[in-house]
Structure formats: structure tokens, C-alpha cells
Design a protein that fits this description.
The protein is α/β, with parallel strands linked by helices and about 290 residues long. The protein has one domain: 3-Layer(aba) Sandwich (Rossmann fold). Helix content is about 35%, strand content about 25%. Helix 3 packs across helix 4.
Length: about 290
């Protein structure tokens, strides 16, 4: 269902520890009393809702007939400046557990009407998730955790975050309580605290995608770029094999990088071909399974 016009509004809800979860709501303008299912878009590690073409992706999904909530995780390090990491002390302790809690908070806020738009009628009993990279792995955990989620699509999902950490990083955590990574876009040195590692190990059964994907029973689409330079496409292959959903699919994008040819800032009029392909498959998946 293509809609001719959408409304975009922004706001925030409080996380379980009282920090803001900032969001943008892209809503099809309701006509004839129609209500629209909701999709929540989850960014990845060092990501944010306003990265590159993500706002355009969300707008495109809204035009396909969905309310779309693009959210920043409460500890992702982005504050009032939409595209700059100004809250590094929060980024340092962004755990997978808190990311998962944040998704639950947003779902709860949707169902209570705290995230809404006066121009639109949202069917918050029908919720889907799109997650990129680390957000894809969190989408899998959230889909098992929260029953309103009825359909998901992952882009470049990480199968097991425990395998992402090198021996050098673990040594840093043991010796100084943090490790440092570089943000290639900004040049910032970004601390990742030992609490992040400890949380993933101690709560693996709840927060690690490979530990939870076998419990998935809802329609699940795995998309991955064949040329992903950050997370190998074999991660999505493993997740697809382990997924117990009756309706599941794996799509590998030819020439697809980790961000499907997109970069930040995004100034093109058109999506790169790999991203357009991923989006087309994703739209088709939700049209079939989230109505």
C-alpha cells in the first residue's frame, strides 16, 4: 500500500535508567480510518538514527504503509547534536542488555500511546523490527523477548558478539578496565568499558543473537552483503540455519558492503544499488508478513 503523504515528528522517552531514548516517528497520514503496523529501526555499533541514508530508508518504509520509529539507543553516545558523539561516557558503557531494554521501552511507549502522531492511526499490536549490524543482533534478541514483535528483517547482523573481541581487547579490559576503538569517520578514540564485555558474557543466553535465534518463530529475513568488510556474510548464514521460524529467508546482496554502498553524510538523490536491493527485499517481506 503506497501512501501519498507522511508526517515526521520527533521526541524522546526515558530509558529504564532515566536517560533519553531519542526517536523520530515517520507516519503515513491516515485516511478513511486506516491504521498502520509499526516498524522500529535499530542502528548498529557507532551508529545512530540519522546516519547516512537511514532517515530516507525510514521515510521509504513509511510510504509503503508503516509507521516507522527510528530510535537512538540511550547509551549510543549521541546527544542533542544528531550526528556527533558528544556523550562518550555513555558510549563507554553501552551494553547489549541496555540496548535490549531500550527496545522494550519503545514498544511499551508505543502501546501506551506515548509515541504517536495526531495525523496517523498506528496499530501497535503489529510491530516489526529492522536492525543493522549490532542492531540486527539486538533485533533477534528483542523479537524473542517481546511478544508484540511479529516480523523482523536483519541487515548485516552480528551472529555472536563474543567473537568480535580480540585477545588484545580482552587484555585491555583486564588491565585497564577499557579498550579503545577508533571512529574512522571522525578520528575519535572511543572507549569501550569492561562492563560491555562482562554483560555479554554473563547474559549471553538473553542478549546474544546465536543464543536466541533458535527460539524465533516469527517471519525472519536475513540480508547481508557478499562484500561486507566488517561482519562476514557467514554470520547471517549461521543465523539463518539456526533460526527455527517456518517463514525465513536469507538474501545475499551482490557487491553489498557493510552499509550497502552508503556512507555518511549521504547526499545522493538515489540509493546505491545494493541498498536499494536490500530495501526492496525488506519492504516485500513486511508487506507479506506484517499487515
Amino acid at each position: 500500500m503506497e501512501v501519498s503523504s507522511i508526517s515526521i515528528s520527533s521526541g524522546q522517552v526515558k530509558s529504564t535508567e532515566g536517560l533519553p531514548i531519542r526517536y523520530d516517528l515517520y507516519s503515513p497520514i491516515s485516511r478513511n480510518g486506516l491504521s498502520f503496523p509499526v516498524i522500529i529501526f535499530l542502528h548498529g555499533f557507532k551508529g545512530f538514527k540519522d546516519w547516512g541514508p537511514f532517515p530516507d530508508v525510514c521515510e521509504e518504509m513509511a510510504r509503503a504503509g508503516y509507521g516507522v520509529v527510528a530510535m537512538n539507543f540511550s547509551l549510543n553516545g549521541i546527544g542533542d547534536e544528531k550526528t556527533e558523539f558528544t556523550e562518550m561516557e555513555l558510549f563507554e558503557r553501552e551494553t547489549l542488555s541496555q540496548d535490549l531494554e531500550d527496545v522494550g521501552t519503545v514498544i511499551d511507549a508505543l502501546q501506551k500511546g506515548e509515541i504517536s502522531d495526531s495525523h496517523s492511526s498506528l496499530n501497535t499490536d503489529k510491530i516489526g523490527l529492522i536492525g543493522h549490524s549490532r542492531g540486527g543482533q539486538t533485533a533477534i534478541a528483542a523479537a524473542v523477548e517481546y511478544t508484540p514483535v511479529q516480523c523482523i528483517a536483519t541487515w548485516s547482523a552480528v551472529a555472536d558478539y563474543r567473537n568480535r573481541w580480540s585477545d588484545a581487547m580482552k587484555k585491555d579490559w583486564e588491565e585497564q578496565g577499557y579498550t579503545e576503538i577508533e571512529n574512522s569517520r571522525t578520528g575519535q578514540k572511543m572507549k569501550v568499558g569492561k562492563v560491555v564485555y562482562d554483560d555479554a558474557i554473563e547474559n549471553a543466553e538473553r542478549v546474544i543473537a546465536m543464543e536466541r535465534v533458535g527460539q524465533l518463530r516469527i517471519p525472519t529475513l536475513f540480508i547481508h552483503g557478499r562484500d561486507d568488510e566488517t561482519v562476514p556474510y557467514t554470520d547471517s548464514e549461521k543465523l539463518h540455519i539456526a533460526c527455527e521460524a517456518r517463514d525465513k529467508e536469507l538474501r545475499l546482496v551482490a557487491n553489498g558492503t557493510h552499509t550497502y554502498g552508503a556512507a555518511h553524510p549521504f547526499e545522493s538523490q538515489d540509493f546505491p544499488k545494493p541498498l536499494a536491493e536490500a530495501l526492496e527485499w525488506t519492504e516485500g517481506w513486511f508487506v507479506e508478513y506484517l499487515r
